Amino acid sequence: MLISRLATRRTWHATTHVRGRPEEVLAALTDPAACARWSGVAFTLRGHDGPRLITGSRARVTGELVGRSVDFDLSILEADPRRLRLRAIGPVQLAATYLLAPTGDGCQVEAALTIVPAAIPHGGVIAFGTQALLAAGALEQALARLAVEVEGDRRPAAVQYRRSAA
Predict the structure, then answer these.
(1) How far apart are CA 19 and CA 46, in angstroms?
(2) What CATH architecture does domain 2-164 belong to?
(3) What pLDDT does 159 receive?
(4) Which helix (H) or strand (E) is 120 found in, with range?
(5) Residues 6+ apart with CB under 8 A from 3
(6) How far is Cα 145 from Cα 155, in angstroms, rounded to an integer?
(7) Rounded CA gap, 16 and 8, in Å?
(8) Torsion, Cα of 142, 144, 145, 146 (10° steps)
(9) Which pLDDT value is given to residue 4?
(10) Strands 106-117 and 10-18, how do they pair?
């Protein structure tokens, strides 16, 4: 199928400034209720009972990507005030890294999201559709909502965008 061949490993990058300390940004990145507000993807988290995702946390995530119900096995590889790294394996593999650097008036957040199609039915279609959403600015929009979540106001954050294939 042509779409399956078009969907290849891609990495998307976005950077924003948040008027909050790295610890506050990490809290918003690892609180499942906050994630539901800023991520832009409706999802349900199962198999995790704590208030935050921490290094070593594992959970099952059910949501919808490009019109299809999908399940992912989520692993938090690292969660500290300098970075959050996670991996989600399902019909596509997602690897996300959020680097948090303190600034004089808050925190710079650099996000990298890698999408890898899985060799399963519809994996290429879901990867291609997800990449199309990212090309349309989904990562930048998520970072803007993250800034709003941390800052507690409705002023949009300035987001810089660059894309690279990895």
Answers:
(1) 31
(2) 2-Layer Sandwich (3.30)
(3) 52
(4) none
(5) 124, 125, 128
(6) 10
(7) 26
(8) 90
(9) 42
(10) antiparallel
The two tokens of residue 61 are 């995530």
Distance (Å, whole) CA 152 – CA 139: 20
C-alpha distance from residue 138 to each of 25, 117, 135 (Å)? 19, 18, 7
Q: Which residues of the chain have pLDDT under 70?
A: 1-7, 66, 119-124, 153-166
Q: What are phi and psi of 19, to 5 degrees?
A: -85, 75
Closest by Cα among 155, 110, 141, 112 to 17:
110
Structure tokens at 155: 């002023």
Structural tokens at position 4? 């399956």
Which of the 8 DSSP states describes residue 80?
E
Helix (H) or strand (E) holding 121: none
Return the structure tokens found at 87. 């991996």
Q: Could you give phi then psi for residue 26, rounded to 5 degrees?
A: -60, -40
Query: What does the longest C-alpha to C-alpha distance in the chain come to?
Result: 51
Residue 30 structure tokens: 């690892």
In angstroms, rounded to a whole number, what is the distance separating the alpha carbons of residues 79 and 98?
9
